[in-house]
């Protein structure tokens, strides 16, 4: 399978991130490694989307603090970014709404036609509509070969920081084939791009709790987008999926990360990291990166909090 035919993926993680832990970042890394090893995917970006303050969870600190902590946690990553859109809304947003927002944003910013899991697009996903005058921004007459998928996605990848962190203007990226006869025809790379929800097996298990999730939203999340699940504490994901008719229906859209790494819940758990902070436990360094710890101590977060 060539790079052109592989599915290009952006991983999106929604959550409290109260605070964001080392384990949350490891989930991104493990998911990317696994998807690459399957030979079917290329992960071009990751997005951390902290929940709105009105989510109402006990002990949830202000999104102002959570956004800063998330930014500190990913500051050394060249592919994971923090997006404040969810926090900036007037009220709490569903996971489905956040996925749809980023899908629509990617359409506007990249000019891509994002395909659903079940219905891969047969339309070139990067290119200029035929009724518009081409305004190429990627063109070099000195380059004799046509742009590859890697070159094109490199340009998209470079734009992720702007996509994730600012409200970009509505514009299109146009990638022109230098070998094409621009007077009569333009050729484009066809690249399939999807946004997948990244989560732990605990979120997957929450889908089985009656009334917790809107069923229509679950249909969109699992049926249209798809999920990448990182198991925790040797969770039996097959058993979890068998407890939900929707998860069974879209089982092929749920990718479970399978590797040899032990991933205990304590490494990911924000709750355990908060307890360690409150008790002055030196093992907090196992849960949180040093810049996040420094910010928490400077801002006096969680020290007297409960939950």
Automatic annotation (TrEMBL):
Domain Cytidyltransferase-like: residue ranges: 12-105
Keywords attached to this entry: ATP-binding, Cell projection, Cytoplasm, Cytoplasmic vesicle, Golgi apparatus, Lipoprotein, Membrane, NAD, Nucleotide-binding, Nucleotidyltransferase, Pyridine nucleotide biosynthesis, Transferase
Gene Ontology molecular function: nucleotidyltransferase activity
CDD domains named among the record's database cross-references: NMNAT_Eukarya
CC cofactor: Mg(2+)
Pfam families: CTP_transf_like
EC number(s) on file: 2.7.7.1, 2.7.7.18
Family to which this protein belongs: Belongs to the eukaryotic NMN adenylyltransferase family.
Annotated protein name in UniProt: Nicotinamide/nicotinic acid mononucleotide adenylyltransferase 2
């Amino acid at each position: 399978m060539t790079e052109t035919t592989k599915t290009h993926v952006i991983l999106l993680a929604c959550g409290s991130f109260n605070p964001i832990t080392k384990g949350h970042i490891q989930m991104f890394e493990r998911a990317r490694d696994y998807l690459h090893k399957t030979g079917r995917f290329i992960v071009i970006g990751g997005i951390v989307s902290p929940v709105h303050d009105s989510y109402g969870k006990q002990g949830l600190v202000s999104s102002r603090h959570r956004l800063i902590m998330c930014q500190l946690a990913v500051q050394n990553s060249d592919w994971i970014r923090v997006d404040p859109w969810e926090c900036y809304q007037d009220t709490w947003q569903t996971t489905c709404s956040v996925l749809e927002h980023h899908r629509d944003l990617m359409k506007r910013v990249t000019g891509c036609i994002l395909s659903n899991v079940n219905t891969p697009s047969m339309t070139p996903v990067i290119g200029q509509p035929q009724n518009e005058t081409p305004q190429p921004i990627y063109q070099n007459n000195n380059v004799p070969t046509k742009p590859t998928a890697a070159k094109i996605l490199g340009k998209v990848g470079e734009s992720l920081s702007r996509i994730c962190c600012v409200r970009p203007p509505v514009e299109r990226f146009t990638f022109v084939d230098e070998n094409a006869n621009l007077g009569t025809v333009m050729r484009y790379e066809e690249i399939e791009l999807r946004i997948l929800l990244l989560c732990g097996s605990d979120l997957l298990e929450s889908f089985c709790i009656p009334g917790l999730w809107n069923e229509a939203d679950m249909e969109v999340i699992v049926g249209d987008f798809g999920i990448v699940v990182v198991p925790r504490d040797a969770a039996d994901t097959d058993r979890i999926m068998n407890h939900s008719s929707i998860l069974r229906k879209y089982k092929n859209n749920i990718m479970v990360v399978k590797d040899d790494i032990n991933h205990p819940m304590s490494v990911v758990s924000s709750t355990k990291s908060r307890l360690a902070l409150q008790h002055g436990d030196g093992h907090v360094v196992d849960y949180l990166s040093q810049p996040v710890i420094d910010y928490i101590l400077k801002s006096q977060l969680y020290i007297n909090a409960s939950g």
